[in-house]
Design goal:
Elements: H1 2-22, H2 27-31, H3 45-76, H4 94-123, E1 130-137, E2 140-145, E3 150-153, E4 169-173, E5 178-184, E6 189-193, E7 198-202, E8 208-212, E9 218-224, E10 236-242, H5 244-256
Parallel strand pairs: 1-5, 4-10
Antiparallel strand pairs: 1-2, 2-3, 5-8, 6-7, 6-9, 9-10
Length: about 280
């Protein structure tokens, strides 16, 4: 009976180890705290990753200490054989109560300070090389390249008829600082490029801004991260970080299609459903 109990407890760490192996997590993924993407995708991702992993290290240390104290208390103060009745009751313990007050306060202040240090540069306006407007709508995105006076537009993704290559795609030149103005045509959405490790809500009648510099050429998946209606899960897009030459080519292609100017928030919210093909997709 005793051996079966031991086998049961040994099975727990074995199962956890097997799960980690089967997930195929690389050393880099583990070092990044299992965050998506790779290091240095934008000028902000390394700082965000550092904040994330440092926070988890502190929390694991606090957890280990707390679990250790719990284990000690359960062993040291357990009921011994032959003991009856209640143990001696303590009305208070000032050192312990002080510890339970001071330590959480230090943790909260520390997390606030380090989070502010990381977030301030992200939220502070900077001089940008180009300006883009992203307009959310049920359930897709329009991209106005304000610096180049052209636009691109998407329709609601239909997985039965389309592939991921048909998603609305925002093109960005590598190593250029970008300002993205975010607004909505209907309800609240959220602009989230997963590998950029940052998202921001998109409100109707209001403009939010994000600033960043993409540093690695590649294709990155994006989605709406705010429940916005029936087809919220289909409100997908892509970001392609390309060379300046490829970006200029894309802008020229949009101009050649006659997609000059910008698409505003005054357009009909339902102009862009699957199957529709308006001359101006709003």
């Amino acid at each position: 009976m005793q051996s079966k109990r031991h086998s049961k407890w040994l099975a727990v760490p074995a199962a956890i180890s097997l799960a980690l192996v089967l997930t195929g997590c690389s050393a880099e993924q583990v070092s990044r705290g299992f965050l998506p993407g790779t290091a240095g995708i934008t000028n902000h991702t390394n700082e965000i990753t550092s904040l994330w992993t440092s926070s988890w290290i502190v929390l694991w240390l606090v957890g280990l200490i707390a679990w250790g104290l719990m284990g000690y208390a359960m062993v040291a103060y357990r009921r011994r054989k032959g003991e009856t009745g209640l143990p001696v009751q303590l009305r208070y313990n000032m050192p312990i109560e002080t510890l339970f007050t001071v330590v959480p306060l230090i943790l909260v202040i520390g997390f606030f300070a380090f989070t502010t240090k990381v977030m301030m540069p992200i939220e502070t306006a900077v001089k940008s090389d180009m300006k883009i407007q992203a307009v959310g709508k049920q359930w897709s995105w329009d991209f106005n390249y304000l610096t180049n006076d052209v636009y691109d537009t998407g329709i609601q993704f239909d997985p039965t008829k389309q592939t991921l290559n048909d998603l609305p795609t925002l093109y960005l030149p590598v190593n250029k600082t970008v300002e993205v103005d975010l607004t909505s045509r209907d309800v609240i959405h959220s602009f989230w490029v997963i590998d950029f490790l940052y998202k921001k809500d998109v409100f109707p009648g209001r403009t939010n801004k994000i600033y960043f510099t993409p540093q690695k050429i590649g294709t990155y998946e994006g989605k709406c991260a705010e429940l916005c209606g029936e087809y919220h899960s289909m409100m997908l897009f892509r970001v392609k970080v390309v060379s300046q030459a490829d970006y200029d080519t894309h802008v020229a292609e949009l101009a050649a299609k006659g997609q000059t100017g910008s698409l505003g928030t005054d357009l009909n919210r339902n102009q862009n459903l699957p199957g529709d093909n308006p001359s101006i997709r709003g």
